[in-house]
Specification:
The protein is mainly beta. The chain has one helix spanning about 50-60, and strands at about 10, 15, 20-25, 25-30, 70-75, 85-90, 105, 105-110, 110-120, 120-130, 135, 145, 150-155. The protein contains one helix and 13 strands; from the N terminus they run E-E-E-E-H-E-E-E-E-E-E-E-E-E. Strands 6, 7, 10, 11, 12 and 13 form a six-stranded antiparallel β-sheet that branches. Strand 12 and strand 13 (about 150-155) form a beta hairpin. The radius of gyration is 19 Å and the shape is globular.
Length: about 160
């Protein structure tokens, strides 16, 4: 039960309950309401999540719930023939494969590209070639050691007004 009368919302990873977020078994106050000691059973719901809702909650977790910013990833294979290219980074859990959550790039005009919405913030990332070779972005001069003898490319996202 919620004292301020705000609705309960179910998403793919968390519950948002009248200004409170239930994340990984914990309850964090988002502001403004008090919470009674009982929480309704939500196990009967469909669990379907609207993509915009999920993106907005991800932006809120990253510290800016007001907007997401489109960012284009571009990889020039310089004549190398590849079957797949995906991006892995701190924004998507460093997946080794596309099936594991890697963001696939599409080959067009000799370049592999993808545009994704990201919350403002600081991220590390790499391209993954044929789901086997992690490489830093050759076009991105900003990098840091990855702890494994190579480097991660760095990305700072801020949305222009």
């Amino acid at each position: 039960m919620v004292s301020c009368g705000m609705p309960l919302r179910r998403t793919r990873r968390r519950l948002v309950l009248a200004g409170f977020a239930m994340v990984a078994g914990g309850l964090a106050a988002l502001g403004g309401c008090s919470l009674a000691t009982t929480i309704p059973d939500l196990t009967g719901g469909s669990g379907a999540v609207d993509a915009a809702d999920a993106a907005a909650l991800d932006a809120a977790e990253a510290g800016d719930a007001s907007r997401l910013c489109a960012h284009s990833f571009i990889y020039d294979p310089k004549g190398k023939t590849l079957k797949t290219v995906h991006v892995a980074g701190s924004f998507n859990g460093w997946p080794k494969t596309i099936a594991g959550g890697g963001w696939p790039l599409t080959l067009s005009g000799g370049f592999w590209t993808a545009t994704r919405d990201l919350a403002p913030g600081h991220y590390a990332y790499k391209f993954v070639l044929d789901e086997a070779q992690f490489i830093p972005d050759p076009a991105d001069p900003s990098s840091e050691p990855d702890g494994f003898g190579s480097t991660n490319s760095l990305l700072d996202i801020s949305c222009g007004d």
